[in-house]
Specification:
- The chain starts with a helix and ends with a helix.
- The protein is globular.
- Helix 5 links the parallel strand 4 and strand 5.
- By secondary structure, it is α/β, with parallel strands linked by helices.
- It has 14 helices and eleven strands.
- The protein has a domain of about 200 residues: Aldolase class I (TIM Barrel), CATH 3.20.20.70.
Length: about 300
Amino acid sequence: MKNKLCEIIGCQYPIIQGAMQWVSDTSLVSAVSNAGGFGVLASADAQAEDIRKEIKQTKALTDKPFAVNIALISKTAEDVFKVVLEEGVPFVALTAGNPKPYIPYLIEAGIPFFGVVATVKQAAKMEEAGASFVVVEGMEAGGHIGEMTSMSFIPQARDVLSIPLVAAGGISDGRGMAAAFALGADGIQMGSRFLLANECNVHENFKAKLLQATSSDSVVTGRLSNHAVRCIANDLTKAYQEQEQSKSTEPVSLGKGAAYRAAVEGDMEMGSIMAGQSLDLLKKESSAKEIIEETINQYNEVIASLCKIEL
């Protein structure tokens, strides 16, 4: 499967692995890239030298393209950015903050970049800034989200973009991929589905929770404080919602370190179990290669079936 996006990033399939805090390490990223997708290392709040080690390890495990995601609101973002420039990574993802100060340095170093956006206006600005492609993320996604659904977001962003558009948010199989392409996408980003990859080192409690959860377990906290996060309901989300309803300032402290507690320590009660709305589709653990192949095969089946329909 080849299109403009695949040509730009040099991958076999237009499937990008979402950068998940404390999850997307060299094991998962190299496996996705080796399987023909596009792996993305997450830096989160990690120390710059730890990210340097991850970059070097990933280069040792794959000769395929991958990216490093820099969460610009992180207290270590500037140090991580310096390491990224020094190591000459294939791509950089700029998210969760203002990318404008960083872009000239990437252009000077010849490192292509992209951004994950939550509005049509942000998508247009990323293209104007020189991004190679843009990930438009609907509110069905896990983690920090905006307010637009993928159904409305993708076609509106398509109309203002001339560069490739990658759809994200609640996409976990080939049917979602086919729908995204019908709306104008050139590729998809999947996060939650790759949490169940054999090569994903997220805590086993997290994987077990994903396999047990259903779509009705998906909740959003933080809307009142303009920091909306989609995750699986637990004691943390209940406490968060109670604090929000009482208009207390306490939710900020409740969320501190919550992603780490869930992904690394396996705390399923007071950790933030970030996952998208497609929980009923997450039925089994598989290798990254199997996940990508199953997604592409189902996509092809859907397209073939649709071609037989006469209106």
